[in-house]
Amino acid sequence: MSTIHAVILAGGRGSRLGAVRKADLLIDGQRLLDRVAARFSGISGKFLLSIGRYGEIALPAGAVALADAENESQGPLAGIAAAAQHLAAFGRPDDLLISVAVDTPFLPADYVARLAAISGVAGYARFGEIFYPTNAAWRLGPLREALARHPGNAGPRALLRDMAAAPVQWSGTGPDPFANLNSFADLLALQRRARELSLRG
């Protein structure tokens, strides 16, 4: 049985938000980082947090902070690469690494279970026609091989294509569970959504 490892990608600069660390932003009084981390409680393997070039951060329980690989131009792929490098000492080739962007406050409750069930070497989250390349599952052996083939400024999309990744579809009548935060308008919309959910609950 494969071990499930996880990495939250929290190393972005948040440039469109005034260079703030997204992980520390609050949605309905809770840090983005803590909202996302809650979906990974009970995983069997390592729980990693990619912090890029940021300094210290208050870590969720059980998490290990990783600085990104040297090539910062890779963006979120640098965090995935750093996790793969860290897991070289712990993970087996058929183990899975599940990645997620930190700015995904409404991550589905079945996120880990559904990505962990992929039969191939990689899979990625999809909602309707929207493709989320940072929210994905990667089998460690093939991931390391693909990373070696993609130096420089490659991104997660290129890696997923290389690995013939399969989509894992979430769909329904509700709002996008992978809606993320890139602007102040997004922040306000996500805050409204969280308040509406609190009132219903």
Shape: globular
Query: How many structural domains can be distinguished in the coordinates?
Result: 1
Largest sheet: 7 strands, mixed
Radius of gyration: 16 Å
Mean residue pLDDT: 88
Point out poorly predicted stretches. Answer: none
Strand order of the largest sheet: 5-4-1-6-8-7-9
Which structural class is indicated by helix and strand composition? alpha/beta
Distance between termini? 37 Å
Compressed to H and E, one letter per element, the order equals EEEHEEHEHEEHHEH
CATH homologous superfamily placement? Spore Coat Polysaccharide Biosynthesis Protein SpsA, Chain A
State the name of the first-level CATH class: Alpha Beta
Helix count, per DSSP?
6
Strand content: 15-25%
Could you give the count of β-strands? 9
Structure description:
- Strand 2 (26-27) and strand 3 (30-31) form a beta hairpin.
- Helices cover 29% and strands 22% of the residues.
- It has a single domain (4-200), classed as Alpha-Beta Complex (Spore Coat Polysaccharide Biosynthesis Protein SpsA, Chain A), CATH 3.90.550.10.
- The protein is an alpha/beta fold and 201 residues long.
- The protein is built from six helices and nine strands.
- The longest helix is centred in the last third of the chain and has 17 residues, at 184-200.
- The strands form two sheets. Strands 5-4-1-6-8-7-9 form a seven-stranded mixed β-sheet.
Tell me briefly what this model is.
This protein is of the alpha/beta class. It has helices at 32-37, 76-87, 111-116, 140-149, 156-162, 184-200, and strands spanning 4-9, 26-27, 30-31, 47-50, 63-66, 96-101, 122-127, 130-139, 166-170.
